[in-house]
Fold each of these.
Amino acid sequence: MRDSRPQSIENLFEATEGQGVLQSIQQRAIALNRLNLAVQGVLPAQMHPWCRVANFRQGILVLETANASWMMRLRYEQSSLLSALRAQILPSLTAIDITINPSLAAKGQESVQKNGSRSEVEENSPGRQLSEQSAEILRGVASRSPEKLKRIIERLASLAGESTSSTSRNK
């Protein structure tokens, strides 16, 4: 267990056995960043915003991914990634562990939007709409439903003619 007693801030900057605590943390962060760049170089381009290196310990590379879907895609690439990384920079690599980090999904989405890699079809499509005919059918179903469900279905039917594209939901 780590020493949890309060320590002077000077201890962080003092060199103990050749390097200070902050210096070792910085070196570890730089090494992980370089490893992340190497992994990004081996992975397909569409996976870059959704995967990153989390850690490397005891010969095991820990990768984080946004969700289970990207985790499955990464598992398909796992054997080629393992052999490429062993050949290029990590001969001591024994395994790759993949974990899901949901906060990576939001960062990946921001990255995709900044890079403008949304398709033209997605940009130009008006989004899905509920027709008046479908709204009338929903109102008919609502009239025969219990009160709580009736309110929900009527609220859905009132959306007839409105776009349900992602931009209108994010307002």
Amino acid sequence: MYERNVMIDEQFVKITCDSPILWSYITDNFRPANDADPKKKAAIELDIAGDYGAPFSGFDVQVANLNHVVLFKRSDYLIMADPDFRKAVIKAYDRMALKHALLNFYSSYLIHHESGLLIHSSCVIDHGFAHMFAGQSGVGKSTAARLSSPRKLLSDEATLIKISAETGTITAYNSPFRSDIGAIDGGQHCELKSIQLLHQHTENKRTRVAKDTNLVQLLLPRTFYWPHTDKELSIIHELLNKIIERVPVYDLYFQKNNTFWQLIS
């Protein structure tokens, strides 16, 4: 059995796992909580098990509330979480299944506690601020991330955003929910300065999207969520509204090279 205390944004998380293959995903992407007090109780406890289910066959997830347990089930993973998402058992077929299961669980945790969102995007640090790149699948989120080197990367697939209840500050964190570029060498959390809606083009152009545009409906399809109660969609709308009130959104038309950063820096 493997065991480690890690940090996800500001949360102290205790993870146990019985599979060396699944454990390699944890060690590749989750930073050890080296500074956490060993006597401090973890905010979240996850028990991960391998050899579950079948290979990936589709993104549809079955959701159910049964006897004070929230269930999320896909062909290649199963999540059994308590109602406040402080504890969960996660069973997964392979590394990809575990990544998707952890993304599912932590998105549910953030929304349940009304503290943040995971958005399908990449996110890069430039001059101490975070800049997010969102768009349709295949438009170039990972490309934009790779072209941004040597800038530090906060995410290559799922940007982890939290909203301060005290100040309203929108902060992007080093997301462990990675696709191609590991999180261990990612940057430190920082304020989110801009959101780019990506469009590949023959020239670079960046224009601000007007606030009277229905930006919530633009960003909602790019938000990871698996609702298990009627309340959750209204929470997501509220959180997205808070983000777009403080963070400008742009259409970014870009060539497949790093010159688009001249429009952002």
Amino acid sequence: MRIDKMLANLGYGSRKDVKKLLKDGAVLVNDEKIKDPKHHVNPETDTVTLNGEVIEYKEFIYLMMNKPPGVISATEDSQDQTVIDLLEMEDQVFEPFPVGRLDKDTEGLLLLTNDGQLAHRLLSPKKHVPKTYFAVIDGEVTAGDIEAFKKGVTLDDGYLTKPGELVILKSGLRSDIELTITEGKFHQVKRMFQAVGKRVVYLKRISMGSLVLDDSLDLGEYRELTEEELEGLIEH
């Protein structure tokens, strides 16, 4: 890969900015000053430093975000803030996108990556990747609801959902539940509860496949996946 392309891809400025860095002698490849922007480097084996700092090149980026409410799961929107707007510039340059979507008012686990193949696998209906949500429900959730969800419920448009696994954490006028589903229809969790005459007042995704939301991430915060987390998703 050309040295100017590599540095530009990593967000060290435009090709023009990068040319200036090279001209100024700020870039070393294997301890040798490189001024030619066309110089080819192997990101796997060559050591590239910029102003004495070693540069790590990576093709793909994998980020776990705790999505806050009020933010759109999209790469751009003319009216609302998107999850991409929450990323640092050094991560935005990789052009990641959200894998699947969380409703605007829903919080929790969102995976962002520029790895299209992995995203496609995780979203493929054939894969049945389970997604688990924590929700607060207006109304008493009962054993009858557990049975109904186990069979699948009919949504407002006549669609019969695949079975969902409902766990009641606390039952009362307000109930706390966890629901695991393997599909991602529009507003699915809310519509499943509507189908049994109840209303979701708070919704948060806590896991997707083997990936579990990191409790230490505040709303709007994100971090790169660990190698173990990434391997878990790839093996799914």
Amino acid sequence: MALPDTQTKTRFVVEFPINASPKILFPYLATASGLSQWFCDDVRYVEGQRLNFIWDNDNHYAEISGQRLNRAIRFVFLNELRQTVSDANYLEFSLDSSQVTDEVYLRVVDYSATQDSNEHYEMWDGLVAKLREQVGG
């Protein structure tokens, strides 16, 4: 039986400019094949709206709790028994476009156990650099 997660959680929010249209960028944020190219070792569809994110041979199951095509997606992580839990970790990607400058911004909301905000930023900065390599932006 898994113990409840009692760690303090924070909502970490960061935005990155990306030189790619939302139509090109969104599949990298919302599909298993796209996410596995930059975000983690592998991502597999499990069933319905559920995915398995794999880091260092560890499985992390999540379900898509909300999606707006070419705009936003949220993944809510499940417990070891693949069940929803209260105050679950989640990850949200959203895309915003500036009509004035024609720039696209990727907004990341990472709600998880507290860690050093500088390290957290460096981690996301590195991941988004990999994403930019994939989309050419």
